Amino acid sequence: DVAAALRCPTLLVHGAKSPVLTREMAERFAARVPCVELVTIEGAGHSVAGDKPDEFVQVVDAFLGKVLER
Description:
Elements: E1 10-15, H1 23-32, E2 36-41, H2 48-51, H3 53-69
Parallel strand pairs: 1-2
């Protein structure tokens, strides 16, 4: 319920191989919270920034670029 009240742009970066946050869980969260943008990084586990740092930076950079254009 708390997350559903979010109104600010929010990025959820999901590692496709995460044993902690499954794709289904991430998709349910994103569907419930309209301001969430979900991006799944293939080949990454739960620590996306550690597993796929270049992809993580690209996704965050693109998200911030969109948010800062507003």
